[in-house]
Amino acid sequence: MGQPPWPVIETVAYFVVAESLTNAAKHAGTPATVVVSRDGEVLRVVVADVGPGGADPAGNGLSGLRSRVEAVDGTLTIDSPPGGGTTVTAELPCE
Length: 95
Description:
By secondary structure, this protein is of the alpha+beta class. The protein has one domain: Heat Shock Protein 90 (2-Layer Sandwich). It contains 2 helices and 4 strands; from the N terminus they run αββαββ. The chain has a 4-stranded antiparallel sheet with strand order 1-2-4-3. A hairpin with a 2-residue loop joins β1 and β2. α1 (about 5-30) runs antiparallel to α2 (about 60-70). The chain is globular.
């Protein structure tokens, strides 16, 4: 299977940022940072906040986001220890 067309990857990256910022505003109440970078054929999107952490990766929003990322053969990592903020990282294939 070839890589998805670039507009599809852009759309998924947009949803990762939008959903993650919405979650940070709703649950963390702190500023969040967004870093988008490209390393070869991987587009990396990282959204981090310094809120209370403890995000549930199986919750509706994050599980839906994971499905969207995995649909284009990407990966989604959520690091959210209690008391340690939340970092959402998506790695998406791109040409």
